[in-house]
From TrEMBL:
Compartments where found: Cell membrane
Gene Ontology terms: cellular component: plasma membrane
Protein family per UniProt: Belongs to the CobD/CbiB family.
Pfam families named in the record: CobD_Cbib
Family annotation (NCBIfam families): cobal_cbiB, PRK01209.2-5
Name of protein: Probable cobalamin biosynthesis protein CobD
Native source species: Candidatus Nitrosocosmicus arcticus
Functional summary from the UniProt entry: Converts cobyric acid to cobinamide by the addition of aminopropanol on the F carboxylic group.
Signal peptide as annotated in the record: none
Lineage: Archaea, Nitrososphaerota, Nitrososphaeria, Nitrososphaerales, Nitrososphaeraceae
Gene Ontology molecular function terms on file: ABC-type vitamin B12 transporter activity; threonine-phosphate decarboxylase activity
Known pathway: Cofactor biosynthesis; adenosylcobalamin biosynthesis
Superkingdom, natural source: Archaea
Amino acid sequence: MPLEPVIEIISILFIATLIDITIGEPPNRMHPVVMIGRIIKFFTKIIKNASRYRIGKETFEKVMGSILALGLTVMVGVVVYYVSTQSFYLLGTVFFVIVSSAILKTTFSIRAMDNHIREILVELDKNNLNNARTNLSKIVSRDTRNLSESRILSACIECVSESFVDGILSPLFYYGFLNIPGSMMYRTINTLDSMIAYKDDYHNKLGWMSAKLDTILNAIPARLSSVFMIASIMVCGQDWKNAIKIVKRDYQNTESFNAGIPMSIMAGGLNIQLEKIDHYKLGDMNEQITIQKCKTSLKITKIATLIFMISFLIPVIIILNYFNWWTILFGI
């Protein structure tokens, strides 16, 4: 049972987290997820153009969309695996750790969501509702033009809660089992979901497989998130008992199979009601939604991330090392 692989893999996690906290996102021209997004756009146009005059258009788009989702995900996994292994064999351990840390950082983001939300809160603090609505529109799909301050804050807290799963916990969860290829493959599917998995006529069939894969891959992390979020709510001195009550009662209120879990936990822990008009209500309006409540939600997700890493992710990496998984995976 060699110790070197586990030390390297935990070091990659630590360095990637440090990069995220101190530097943040790389420029778009160098961001792998942005490049993946461009590939998705390119093939989406090709598929839509090819299906325009085709008999059985819906079936064609469903099949081609499935090939795109599965093919791109596998391709990304293979490329990232090749790059990471070759960096080790050709340039040694130090370069392997540096390259892997840089790639891993692009699959999750703690700082970016924090920055987006705080920009909105600054505008609300100045009573600049229009600016707050504009900034909010960059991170949500709903119409923000006429939202009140409380609706804006609700949307912010919903984003913070949901992004804890698909922006932090899920990519790191798959890193814990499949290293960089697993984390990057998850991010590919999540990007496909965010770009083409809509229910409108244009995307409905094309993004069918992407939506299914995203739901499946987030199922376990979303449910695990409840443990770390409730523990964090306890640490922050919020109402953890109500969080458990609300998640049991309301987690199925959302159309999403997974999103209702972290959002309802946050609603219960903060003793507030989160609402997307004509879609769902989570929690009870025991207390008003305030800017401070939103800041507390950010704190909860950060502490939950730390608890997740220490109590789950690192132990998983160590246990897998005991069974020589990392040696088998990378052939080292």
